[in-house]
Write the structure tokens for this entry.
Amino acid sequence: MRKDLQDGDGNFKTLNYRLGGLKEPGAGDEVVDTMSKIDGVKNVDVDEASRGIAIQFDPALVSEGHLAGTLNSLGHSILSPDMTEALRREGHSETGRDDVSGV
């Protein structure tokens, strides 16, 4: 499944990685719908068979950590070490919950 959004004037970057949690048929639809609503996201493509996702986005408008955190909040684990690091930088845990230490 793929959704192309309106082109922007920014310099777009594409993230490609694998997701955990794409077990139910049609689970990619929720991912595409949610990610497509984020400002700065141009294109989202999910391949449920390979558990792959590609997100084209403008890094001036949205960070990799925010995108990874949104995927985690949907219940999908990031199966890529570089995205785990991006999550940590943004204050998200690998389980998809925001870091609430000290609360």
About this structure: Strands lie at 2-4, 13-18, 41-47, 52-57. The radius of gyration is 13 Å. Confidence is low (pLDDT under 50) at residues 94-103.
